[in-house]
Description:
Elements: E1 2-5, E2 12-15, H1 19-55, H2 60-65
Antiparallel strand pairs: 1-2
Amino acid sequence: MKKEINCETGQVVEREFTDEELAQQKIDAASELQASKLRKAKEKAKAEAQSKLAALGLTVEDLQALGL
């Protein structure tokens, strides 16, 4: 159900999603899932890079200076 609120009158209407709205909702959900996976992969890669650099003897300050 979709809730629509008329800001001028305060009237609230609940209705079923249209086929187009449902299709867009599926597209948006898939897009958000892909973006979430990408963010997690980037975070993992960053953590791995930080770990490898720390193993080489770089300090936290060195890593910050490198933008990591």
